[in-house]
Amino acid sequence: MIPLDSDLILKSLDFENASIPGQKRVERYLADVRGSFADTQAFEAALARGNPLLYAVAGVEPPDGPGQLHYGLGILYPGKIGNEYYLTKGHYHSVRECAEVYIGLKGKGAMLLEDGTTGESRMVSLGEKEVVYVPGNTAHRTVNTGNEPLVYVGVYPSNAGHDYGSIAQNNFRMVIVEEGGKPVMKPRST
Ligand code: S6P
Ligand code: ZN
Asked: For ligand 1, is residue 162 a contact (CB within 6 Å)?
């Protein structure tokens, strides 16, 4: 249990620096998401020009325990590889049944959700004042569909963990691309 006088009880979010003072922050650069984008040629060409920061996540992870929660502040920068929006790696939770709540704070984006059993996919808007419930057993990836950083918080059970392996192996079935100036979800193969 966390005592009420713990400094974990209140945190302030620094949108500009994508950080929460005192908490660890993970950065993912373009090179870290190799294999995620559908257009591998466009990916390699972009990487040859530079290796920009795509996103960062600052995590607040109180000690694990039954009923406990973790959360992370995510900042995903705007951009595209070919016509596919900048994205997070995406994952299942290691404890598959663990759900997650995403709260959009700033910017414009979407979440790509894929049911781990049926493979059914769904694109859900994630922007300011929007909350997305990610059910258990659902792979989830975030994309930035706007022109400014997308800022969000994800809250999840402390035992959820991250399973990146399944996504690294098979990727998502669908991609979110810009078509006619707006985000569209399409099968990866076309
Ligand atoms: C954790 C939660 C988010 C992501 C973040 C980065 O369960 O879903 O904090 O970690 O959006 O995505 P990824 O796929 O690189 O972990
Ligand atoms: Zn998650």
From this structure: yes
| Residue 181 Cα to ligand 1 middle (Å) | 26
Task: Write out pLDDT tens, residues 7-40.
Answer: 999 999 998 888 999 999 999 999 999 999 999 9
| Ranges of each domain in the chain | 25-187
Residue 90 near ligand 1, beta carbon < 6 Å: yes
What mean pLDDT do residues 89-93 have?
A: 98
Proximal ligand: closest to the CA of 102: 1
Q: Which residues of 8-17 are buried (b: 16+ CB within 10 A; e: fewer)?
A: eeeeebeeee
- Homologous superfamily assigned to 25-187: Jelly Rolls (2.60.120.10)
Tokens of 132: 């997305």
> 61-79: per-residue pLDDT in tens?
999 999 999 999 999 999 9
Does ligand 1 have an atom closer than 6 angstroms to the CB of 104? no
pLDDT in tens, 129-160: 999 999 999 999 999 999 999 999 999 999 99
C-alpha of residue 180 to centroid of ligand 2, in Å? 30
Q: Is 70 in the pocket of ligand 1 (CB under 6 A)?
A: no
Q: Dihedral sign, CA of 30, 36, 39, 44?
A: positive
Q: Would you state the pLDDT for residue 7?
A: 93
Q: Which two tokens stand for residue 162?
A: 């991250």
